[in-house]
């Protein structure tokens, strides 16, 4: 039951000011019409914070690839060449993503 305006205690207010019954919150449907009935917890983060999280994740992935490359190279593994190519591909993609956020 969707009722615009002030919400009762048995209802939850959506971001668009609609009121929905607690029974239909996070039920896989979109009773609010703006997907605010089931918050993800990330709504409060700014775009800069989200960008920082993405860049940090990419940096951590790069560090893991560097460590794997060094370990495989020292071990003399035949997989070293494959990891080296993966490393080059990863960082070329990383630089393309980061380049979008660097002012010219």
UniProtKB/TrEMBL annotation:
<keyword id="KW-1015">Disulfide bond</keyword>
<dbReference type="InterPro" id="IPR036055">
    <property type="entry name" value="LDL_receptor-like_sf"/>
</dbReference>
<keyword id="KW-0812">Transmembrane</keyword>
<keyword id="KW-0472">Membrane</keyword>
<feature type="transmembrane region" description="Helical">
    <location>
        <begin position="48"/>
        <end position="73"/>
    </location>
</feature>
<feature type="transmembrane region" description="Helical">
    <location>
        <begin position="85"/>
        <end position="102"/>
    </location>
</feature>
<feature type="disulfide bond">
    <location>
        <begin position="14"/>
        <end position="32"/>
    </location>
</feature>
<feature type="disulfide bond">
    <location>
        <begin position="7"/>
        <end position="19"/>
    </location>
</feature>
<dbReference type="Pfam" id="PF00057">
    <property type="entry name" value="Ldl_recept_a"/>
</dbReference>
<keyword id="KW-1133">Transmembrane helix</keyword>
<dbReference type="InterPro" id="IPR002172">
    <property type="entry name" value="LDrepeatLR_classA_rpt"/>
</dbReference>
<protein>
    <submittedName>
        <fullName>Uncharacterized protein</fullName>
    </submittedName>
</protein>
């Amino acid at each position: 039951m969707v009722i615009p305006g002030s919400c009762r205690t048995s209802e939850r207010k959506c971001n668009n000011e609609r009121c929905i019954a607690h029974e239909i919150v996070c039920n896989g449907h979109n009773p609010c019409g703006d997907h605010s009935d089931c918050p993800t917890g990330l709504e409060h983060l700014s775009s800069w914070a989200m960008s920082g999280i993405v860049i940090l994740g990419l940096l951590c992935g790069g560090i893991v690839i560097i460590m794997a490359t060094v370990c495989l190279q020292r071990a003399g593994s035949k997989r070293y060449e494959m990891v080296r190519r993966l490393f080059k591909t990863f960082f070329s993609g990383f630089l393309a993503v980061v380049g979008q956020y660097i002012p010219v």
